[in-house]
């Protein structure tokens, strides 16, 4: 067998008293796509950071082409031919696309040591062209969509010297179409003899392209083998250390009367002529690619960006929702897509965060009651099984899944009748995901009307009673549960069918 | 629509290529409007003497403001600049008075090195000990001023103690352009070159734009922050010499409160106080705008009792005008 491009042997890393990586062995060969699977907290990101030169291993060795190396900083890592795409974009929002690409690599300089802007712009154009990505290179990155920022990340990482490409959950912000493009890119790199380490937990993607699979659990690689020797079930079994039922628990719920009806809702540049009804106890899924208008519809229903025209009918009465305050008064709650920037305050405790959505209902100048807030928090910690040391724990200290539960709890505390969830399991691990699904299902059982948006079709189909597709702001075909045909839904949301009636 | 149609469908059209409009455009308009305004208000404004006066007035502020901008770019702040200017002004003047015949170049060099050393103290504390910069520099504001007071007591160094060549640095002109203004422009030009055309400059903005990303990109943030403070100190040293040369009298209260003038200049110049955004050109325009406002108001016979209040009002109006202009341009999809 050929020499691995990069090999890790017995690598370990601890932070203070916490062991992040216990013992990892990993060999990455030229032209191989290697998937590293593991739940959040399995040490995957720490491993990536060691390859990226951000953390130094406490024990073990890293070799490149059979020679032992130390990687003291990200520039060394890159010089060794290791290109890392981090889970969260490493970009400079105030700088342009060109500047971001330039800062990632060796910058083109003139003999005077001044920057050669012409060459920098050419590099940027070439880097984007390699991925067939079309971006305005003089745009500031903060003006790009999340998906474009992720593509920029990959463009930045790749250069002609790349020997190993590490992708740390690269698809979290991407829609199906972009994931497909990423898969094409990976296939092309593989053909060029580049080794690709694909870190993630979205199994279907992994099995579509990996040659070999390694599973990491509690900071150690527990198994490595050819991809065909794994099934999604067996991989998940290795990840959690036991075999689990992968089927999502969706309770059968007796649907009540129509609670929410939307008639001809439109907003310029976002969506046109959207009409649907949702009943009591029903979970309605909105399917579509990123940018199809789903989030905008949700924001419209919640009054964040009110629709230009159309009608919203709640329990038979037409209502106008022009602001989130009005939406909340009508019992509509919205858990946003980006919980970090819109949902919660990480620097504060659960007891602080939970009643935030309730503040509007309290007397303006009334005193807050910390006891009541803690009691409320305690109640939801029990009901939603939030894993925490108590109401006083800072939100930032919780895992992603538990943070998401707090966000949902915050809105449940307002006792809504319609709950809109926008990608509620984004970036949280398999176990926590199943719990959130269970929670959603349980809320529907208690008669809540739920509108669910998700970029994972699998999740949408598993949890929803009914799915409506959207393509570029236009409402497409609607599908009923049992049996959902994933291929048909996918075709509808990618605009490949426009008037199929199901 | 068939499947193959969809595959070959053109990608969504790109936004129109953005015409690059410099951030400074709005400030330039503000400056022109102010100049025209004052010129119509008072005939004494639009004269060569007044412009020379404005150029001289803004020089010291501009030199220090350029340093401050570098620090702000990295998402830090330096409120000790007034004290640093004061201390270096005192030391430079004392040195000149004590050693007659000392070459002027040497005085300037010593002042700059002293200033750089003071800046380096700030830099070390902020960059390596990770103490928030506002706390560190508030502390050194008092420490540097305290040292100054302890050394100077109630003594004064006046023009009589200083050689004529000393004040000549400040009063000289080239082609009727005040020398001081040329120094300040040189400093700004150099800083512009570094920020706009070197990797170091871009990296400073990157650190301020997203410190975590900077670390993951392997940018040496600490060194850049340390550098920004040291350069600011050095520029304060230069400003200290010019202060003594210009005003002729140096005591322990030189440049007290100067940090606020500097911060006003930088902020009016469009440098974001939370880092990552700003240009040296903007700072130059900011300095010019503030100087035009104060000189113009003084010439327009505004009651000296009201001068400061009106000055504040005009500053707010100027900033508001710039912001409105910039938002208009941005809403039309023009990158600013």
Please describe what this structure looks like.
The complex is a heterodimer of chains A (502) and B (336). With 502 residues, chain A is α/β, with parallel strands linked by helices. Helix content of chain A is 32%, strand content 25%. In chain A, the strands form four sheets. Chain A has a six-stranded mixed β-sheet with strand order 6-7-8-3-9-10, sandwiched between helices. Chain A has a six-stranded mixed β-sheet with strand order 16-17-18-13-19-20, sandwiched between helices. A four-stranded antiparallel β-sheet of chain A has the order 2-1-4-5, with helices on one face. In chain A, helix 6 (176-191) links the parallel strand 7 and strand 8. The N and C termini of chain A lie far apart (53 Å). Mean pLDDT of chain A is 82; it is low at 242-247 and 498-502. A two-stranded antiparallel sheet of chain B has the order 1-2. Helices cover 72% and strands 1% of the residues of chain B. In chain B, helix 5 (104-127) packs antiparallel against helix 6 and helix 13 (280-299) packs antiparallel against helix 14. Chain B has 14 helices and two strands, in the order αααααααββααααααα. Chain B is mostly helical. Chains A and B meet through helix 2 and helix 3 of A and helix 9 and helix 10 of B.
């Amino acid at each position: 067998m050929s020499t691995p491009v990069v090999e890790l042997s017995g690598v370990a890393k601890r932070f203070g008293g916490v062991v992040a990586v216990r013992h990892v062995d990993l060999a990455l060969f030229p032209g191989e796509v290697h998937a590293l699977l593991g739940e959040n907290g399995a040490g995957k990101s720490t491993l990536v950071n060691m390859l990226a030169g951000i953390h130094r291993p406490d024990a073990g060795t890293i070799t490149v082409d059979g020679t032992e190396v130390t990687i003291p900083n990200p520039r060394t890592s890159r010089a060794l031919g290791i290109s890392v795409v981090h889970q969260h974009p490493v970009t400079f929002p105030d700088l342009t696309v060109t500047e971001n690409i330039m800062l990632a690599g060796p910058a083109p300089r003139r003999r005077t040591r001044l920057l050669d802007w012409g060459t920098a712009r050419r590099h940027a154009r070439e880097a984007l062209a390699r991925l067939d990505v079309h971006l305005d290179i003089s745009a500031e990155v903060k003006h790009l969509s999340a998906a474009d920022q992720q593509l920029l990340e990959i463009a930045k990482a790749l250069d002609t010297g790349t020997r190993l490409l590490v992708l740390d959950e690269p698809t979290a912000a991407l829609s199906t179409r972009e994931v497909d493009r990423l898969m094409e890119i990976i296939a092309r790199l593989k053909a060029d003899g580049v080794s690709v380490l694909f870190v993630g937990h979205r199994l279907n993607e992994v099995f579509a392209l990996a040659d070999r699979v390694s599973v990491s659990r509690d900071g150690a690689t527990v198994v490595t083998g050819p991809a065909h020797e794994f099934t999604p079930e067996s991989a998940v079994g290795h990840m959690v250390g036991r075999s689990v039922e992968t089927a999502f628990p969706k309770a059968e719920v007796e649907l009540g009367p129509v609670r929410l009806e939307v008639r001809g809702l439109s907003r310029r540049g976002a969506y046109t002529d959207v009409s649907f009804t949702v009943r009591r106890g029903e979970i309605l899924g909105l399917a579509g690619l990123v940018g199809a208008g789903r989030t905008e519809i949700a924001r419209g229903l919640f009054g964040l960006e009110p629709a230009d025209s159309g009608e919203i009918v709640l329990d038979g009465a037409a209502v106008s929702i022009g602001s989130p305050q009005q939406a909340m008064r009508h019992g509509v709650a919205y858990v946003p897509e980006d919980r970090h920037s819109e949902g919660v305050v990480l620097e504060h405790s659960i007891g602080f965060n939970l009643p935030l959505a309730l503040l509007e209902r309290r007397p303006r100048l009334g005193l807050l009651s910390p006891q009541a807030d803690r009691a409320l928090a305690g109640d939801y910690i029990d009901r939603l099984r939030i894993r925490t040391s108590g109401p006083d724990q800072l939100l930032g200290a919780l895992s992603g899944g538990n943070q998401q539960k707090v966000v949902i709890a915050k809105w449940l505390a307002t006792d809504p009748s319609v709950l809109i969830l926008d990608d509620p399991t984004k970036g949280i691990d398999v176990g926590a995901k199943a719990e959130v699904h269970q929670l959603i299902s349980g809320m529907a059982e208690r008669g809540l009307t739920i509108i669910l948006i998700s970029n994972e079709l699998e999740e949408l189909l598993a949890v929803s009673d009914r799915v409506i597709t959207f393509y570029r702001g236009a409402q497409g075909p609607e599908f009923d549960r049992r049996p959902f045909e994933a291929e048909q839904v996918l075709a509808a949301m990618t605009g490949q069918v426009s008037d199929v009636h199901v | 629509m068939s499947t193959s149609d969809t595959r070959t469908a053109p990608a969504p059209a790109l936004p129109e290529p953005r015409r690059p409009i410099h951030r400074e455009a709005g400030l330039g308009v503000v400056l022109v409007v102010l100049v025209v305004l004052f010129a119509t208000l008072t005939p004494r404004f639009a004269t060569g003497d007044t412009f020379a006066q404005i150029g001289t007035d803004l020089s010291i502020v501009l030199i220090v403001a350029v340093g401050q901008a570098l620090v702000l770019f990295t998402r830090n702040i330096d409120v000790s600049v007034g004290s640093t200017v004061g201390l270096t002004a005192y030391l430079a003047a004392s040195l000149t008075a004590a050693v007659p015949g000392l070459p002027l170049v040497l005085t300037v060099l010593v002042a700059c090195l002293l200033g750089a050393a003071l800046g380096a103290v700030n830099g070390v504390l902020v960059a390596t000990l990770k103490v928030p910069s506002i706390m560190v520099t508030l502390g050194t504001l008092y420490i540097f001023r305290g040292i100054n007071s302890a050394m100077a007591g109630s003594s004064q160094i006046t023009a009589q103690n200083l050689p004529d060549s000393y004040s000549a640095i400040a009063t000289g002109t080239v082609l009727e352009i005040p020398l001081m203004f040329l120094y300040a422009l040189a400093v700004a030009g150099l800083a512009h070159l570094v920020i706009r055309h070197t990797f170091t400059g871009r990296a400073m903005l990157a650190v301020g734009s997203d410190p975590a990303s900077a670390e993951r990109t392997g940018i040496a943030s600490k060194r850049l922050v340390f550098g920004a403070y040291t350069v600011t100190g050095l520029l304060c040293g230069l400003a200290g010499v010019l202060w003594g040369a210009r005003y002729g009298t140096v005591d322990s209260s030189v440049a007290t409160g100067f940090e606020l003038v500097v911060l006003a200049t930088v902020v009016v110049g469009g440098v974001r106080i939370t880092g990552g955004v700003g240009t040296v050109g903007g700072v130059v325009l900011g300095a010019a705008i503030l100087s035009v406002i104060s000189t113009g108001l003084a010439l327009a016979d505004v009651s000296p009792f009201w001068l400061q209040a009106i000055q504040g009002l005009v500053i707010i109006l100027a900033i508001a005008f710039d912001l409105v202009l910039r938002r208009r341009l941005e809403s039309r999809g023009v990158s600013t």
